[in-house]
Amino acid sequence: MFHVLFEDEAAMLRHEVDPQQRITVELFAQFVADFLAHGYVFVTPADVLRGLDPAGRYALITFDDGYYNNRLALPVLRRYGVPATFFISSDHVLSGHAFWWDVVYRGRRAQPLAPAAQAAEYALLQRLHHLDIAEYLRAQFGPAALLPVGDLDRPFTPAELAAFAAEPEVVLGNHTAHHAVLTHYASADANQELAACQHYLAHLTGEIPCAVAYPNGNVSAVVRAAAATAGLELGTTVAAGKNYLPFAQHGVDMLLLNRFLLWGNRDVARQCALFRTDFQPKRWLQLHRRRLAA
Predict the structure, then answer these.
(1) What is the domain-level CATH number for residue 157?
(2) Crossing angle for the helix pair 158-165 and 187-205, nearest 10 degrees?
(3) What domain count does the chain have?
(4) Do the Cβ atoms of 208 and 198 come closer than 8 Å?
(5) Exposed, middle or buried: residue 238 (CB in 10 Å: 0-12, 13-18, 19+)?
(6) How far apart are the C-alpha atoms of 154 and 189, rounded to whole Å?
(7) Which intervals hold domain NodB homology (predicted)?
């Protein structure tokens, strides 16, 4: 899974956006090429829902949030003829507001906090609802805090997103209206966050999303039920791991799929090899415990 995509290292050094995984276009291209070289086919959520041949090797590229910088992935996708799914926080597209973590990243470079205090601030903001987040950011960093500083940190505009979605390599998915960490929301509010994003993306593109990425990876039985109620059939978390085929045989819930994070400050080929390996310590421990309990 990916978030921000940088044109190059120089763009990262402008410090306009939280670098997160530190992924440049070059590193993203290396990732795609590596999986293709090992016989993998890149698929869409619709492909997964239609059913995949268990004898094949598959990967699903996902980008979360809805950054305009994600358009930089398109030349790579075209070059290799592969699709990617972009999970969109729809209200950011409508409002044009920057994402809160980028506001904090820039603000705390100018007004630093002690590490423990900064960790507490992030934890607080992950728990708050969007109106409270906006109020907090303006109180901390000024009335213009939510205004993006450039193309690197801003979301797509509606027109840009509609054009992007029309590209054959692009699939859009649900990331809630306000990047809502749904485990901190009442059931009705979680339903509304998902439904609002579904409605907006369907209206914008004419296509009803079938997939959701839960913001921050936070999911519970209540959140899973809300996703199903919204008509979503495939859901992605941030739990690291492969999703083994056939899903039914391996107990894989299509609304709770695992994903891997690629990091730009580590060797790409080595990470890709680890993603592909069948030795997953967590999975091995789970199977071992089941055998002991049998």
Answers:
(1) 3.20.20.370
(2) 70
(3) 1
(4) yes
(5) middle
(6) 26
(7) 57-294
